[in-house]
Amino acid sequence: MATTSVTSKRPNWMKARWWFTGSRPRLVITSLILLPICFFWIYPFLWTVSAALKSNGEIFAGLGLVPQKLEWSNFARAWTQAHIGRYFLNTVVITASSVAIVVITTSMMGYVLGRYRFPGKRIVIGILVATVFLPQGYTIIPVFELINGLGLSGSLLGVILGTSGGTPIIFILLFTGYFSRLPHELEEAAIIDGAGFFRVFWQVMLPLSRPIIATVAIMQTLQAWNDFLLPLVLTLARPDLRTLAVGIYAFRGEFFVDWSGMAAAATITILPIIILFLFMQRYFVEGIAGAVKQ
Which of 147, 160, 176, 254 could disulfide-pair with 113, CB 3.0 to 4.6 Å? Predict the structure, then answer.
């Protein structure tokens, strides 16, 4: 009550000055600046969803986002005629399997690099960091030859291993940074209780790295779900094993492109990733913050 009475007795010029220097106007001004930026940022996605509900003729009639008539048949055509349903199932299997493989392998490598000292450790980390700048196109031929040499060419397992093998080194570095910050007393207590290396890692350290696991799972899901070049090369002989990113090109013919069907297929492809990220974005932010915080 006292604060209210003091505030009410302030002159008008002081109230105006407080309004312009307080947090409220900054929030309003920031929102007004960011709203158009956000709109232009998400406009391609909005246009894709809009084009999925238009006819081919209406798509080229303008850049408006509101369809004159909702063409829900585009989604049915994308799901059945272009076999998007089959490609969707392939993508789910490949993505889920690659996430499991990547989380296990990168967490173990990150655990060793983050918790143990050994000769040449800095050199190993430097080599891993250097491979970040290596384009995927440079490694696709060795990966294809390796999959072919293992006799897995033209199989779903070959695509899964190929997708998992292209793991970004950033995942290993995230686990390394996180594990290096955990107290050593946790390991010492487990070792005193008779736990070995794998038991300490699996039952003590890995459960503590849930934020990083969520972050890696999201990033690997994005990478595997949207990957185009590697699945294209590995499924040339088996079109039935295509992923969604490759299957969308079924709408592109020699003389005609079904843009509305392609937009519908792209919308089907994007929506699961958006839903996944909305549910797990808190863990994603916590994982990034926890890995880089010193």
Answer: 176
Residue 257's beta-bridge partner residues?
252
Shared-domain flag, residues 63 and 141: no
**Claim to verify: residue 66 and residue 89 sit in the same structural domain:** no
User: Contact at 8 Å (CB) between 136 and 229?
Assistant: yes
CA dihedral 152, 157, 163, 167 (to 10 degrees): -100
Domain count, the chain: 2
Q: Could you tell me if residue 70 is left (phi over 0), alpha (psi between -120 and 50 degrees) or otherwise beta?
A: beta
H or E stretch covering 42:
helix 23-51
Q: Cα separation of 271 and 279, whole Å?
A: 13
The three-class DSSP label of residue 242 is coil
Here the tokens at position 72 are 């829900």
Q: Quote the CA–CA distance of 265 and 271 in Å, as a whole number.
A: 10
Residue 29's domain comprises: 12-73
Are 17 and 60 within one domain?
A: yes
**17 and 155 co-located in one domain:** no
Residue type, 126: G
Asked if residue 107 and residue 189 are part of one domain, the reply reads yes
What pTM does this model have? 0.77
